[in-house]
Write a structure and sequence with these properties.
Glutamine Phosphoribosylpyrophosphate, subunit 1, domain 1, six-stranded antiparallel sheet, five-stranded parallel sheet, about 550 residues
Length: about 550
């Protein structure tokens, strides 16, 4: 087993000897690895008898140990926040690993041929250990070309798995067990009005915000032109908002963000992203992401994190509410899809159909289908309305595989800690009880959430139409000044391993020739090739 020295606590217990006398036994619990932020730490310290004056690292380790000793496998039921960790129980000779309910922090594991378990919150920490065989799981490429991210428990490294959200892992006596301790459940409450729901959202966020930081922590806040980040900023004590923009005015949302910051009386920092910066940093992003990610906004987010990290250590971000409260425009069409959803909807992205993948891949398996990742979720939501089904798929697949991965990996690489107040079980609890008509209607998405935000934001911001995180890449990548590396990899030996090179270059040529809809396909192929080069050629 991969065991290193960590934070430990000895728990004294009484047990009986053969003669009936009581003797003292020491139970040692060691924190092997931990990443996260426990929001309700003050409450937990009081309940568990932990010194409130300890440093953050000491108290959070103490919370993990004492929560495990007190509640065992049910410990996460008492914790709010973002976390993934591994504890070693010396007395039981047992490893206990847990990932939070939504998967905001990653956790990976790998069983070696010698029967050892390698584990950690970073893939690189695992693949560098003795016993790990670095082999490509090529099956994932077929899924990736549709989804643009790595969904489900498998990864691009053969045998390396993700501990999925809401699960814990037990490793004892060479045996591995995975248990699910939490899953999204939806129970619509028809008794409340729109205003009732808005009040509950607002009051709950008001309760959560003081927990997200301590009084001595200085925090900034990412700000786009949308309602989520604006609402978080308005409810926070962040003195400065940070945004990214472009020289091309039609793509630049930072103008709206600056106006919002001014209205809220906050300082504003804008980072202008050039196409040179965008393409130069792609290898850095794919390396630090550890898995390929075809979401072009991840590159922008990385540059934003790097810029903010120059003057801040902690930053708020507004992820989570779109999936909880019906934020995507496609959700307004949910009723039209009806029962057909379970045959095609696998989340926000599905950019390449099966016949397209069959044409370009050298290895194609007709049994490897993206929809299979969502089958179990549709079984869990049987009988619920189409919007709820779509939302649940995105919460369990898209959020974990794309959004949270991006936030965690790129902020970590920059040395910046991101905190997401809207990603909280208490916020989700409201969404899980809210009927879909308070989430979307024919004119608007996130209806109740926007109504809540309007309590502290001008209506022009609270009810601003959903903005897509636009990146001018569909224009930039067609420009010979910036696409040289795309062309290089599309004609490379690496491409030859996996693709019909003529077929993928035909897609690229069609894109450059004016079919801008092809940009996502080109970008997804390109990001995989960059990632493969970083992990299987350069290293």
């Amino acid at each position: 087993m991969s065991i290193s020295v960590g934070y430990k606590r000895e728990k004294k217990q009484l047990s009986k000897t053969k003669d009936g006398d009581k003797r003292e036994v020491k139970q040692m619990i060691i924190v092997k690895t931990y990443r996260g932020h426990i929001r309700n730490w003050e409450e937990l310290c009081e309940r568990l008898g932990i010194d409130l004056t300890l440093s953050r690292e000491e108290r959070e380790h103490e919370i993990l140990i004492k929560a495990y000793q007190t509640w065992g496998c049910e410990m996460a039921d008492h914790m709010h926040g973002m976390f993934a960790f591994a504890l070693w129980d010396e007395e039981e000779q047992k490893l206990f690993c847990l990932r939070d309910q939504f998967g905001t922090k990653p956790f990976y594991y790998y069983e070696t041929e010698d029967g050892e378990l390698l584990y950690g919150t970073m893939i690189r920490d695992i693949i560098d250990q003795p016993g790990f065989k670095k082999e490509l799981n090529e099956e994932m490429l077929q899924l990736y070309l549709s989804l643009t991210y790595v969904a489900g428990e498998n990864t691009f490294f053969r045998g390396l798995k993700k501990l999925l959200p809401g699960r814990y892992l037990i490793w004892q006596d060479g045996k591995l067990e995975i248990h699910r301790y939490w899953k999204p459940e939806f129970h619509p409450d028809e008794s409340k009005t729109l205003e009732d729901w808005a009040d509950e959202i607002h009051n709950t966020l008001k309760e959560i915000m003081p927990e997200v930081k301590t009084a001595d922590e200085k925090v900034e806040s990412f700000l786009s032109g949308g309602v989520d980040s604006s609402y978080v900023l308005a409810m926070s004590d962040a003195e400065q908002a940070d945004s990214c923009g472009y020289e091309e005015e039609r793509f630049d949302e930072s103008v709206l963000a600056e106006k919002t910051a001014q209205l809220l009386g906050r300082k504003f920092s804008r980072s202008i992203i050039t196409p040179e910066q965008f393409f130069d940093i792609v290898p850095y992003v794919m390396y630090n992401m550890e898995q390929p990610l075809g979401d072009a906004s991840a590159i922008v987010f990385t540059l934003g994190c790097n810029a903010t990290a120059e003057h801040a250590k902690i930053c708020y971000s507004g992820e989570g509410s779109d999936e909880f409260f019906g934020g995507y425009n496609m959700y307004r069409n949910a009723e039209r899809y009806g029962e057909n959803l379970k045959n095609f909807y696998v989340g926000n992205t599905n950019i390449m159909k099966e016949d397209e993948k069959q044409k370009i891949l050298k290895k194609y398996d007709p049994d490897v289908l993206p929809i299979e990742l969502a089958r179990g979720i549709y079984e869990e939501t049987e009988g619920l309305d189409p919007l709820t089904k779509m939302s649940d798929v995105d919460i369990q697949i898209w959020l974990e595989g794309d959004i949270y991965l991006n936030v965690d990996k790129m902020s970590t690489a920059a040395g910046l800690e991101i905190r997401m107040p809207l990603t909280d079980r208490r916020i989700f609890d409201i969404a899980s009880r809210m009927p879909s008509r308070f989430k979307v209607n024919e004119e608007q998405n996130k209806v109740a959430f926007r109504t809540a935000a309007a309590k502290v934001l001008p209506e022009e911001i609270a009810f601003r139409k959903k903005l897509v995180f636009i990146v001018p890449i569909r224009i930039w990548m067609a420009d010979e000044r910036y696409n040289q590396d795309v062309q290089r990899l599309f004609h490379s030996d690496i491409a030859e391993k996996f693709f019909d090179v003529d077929a993928i270059n035909a897609i690229f040529d069609e894109y450059v020739g004016g079919n801008s809809d092809n940009w996502r396909k080109v970008w997804t192929i390109y990001t995989f090739l960059v990632w493969y080069e970083e992990y299987f050629v350069k290293r």
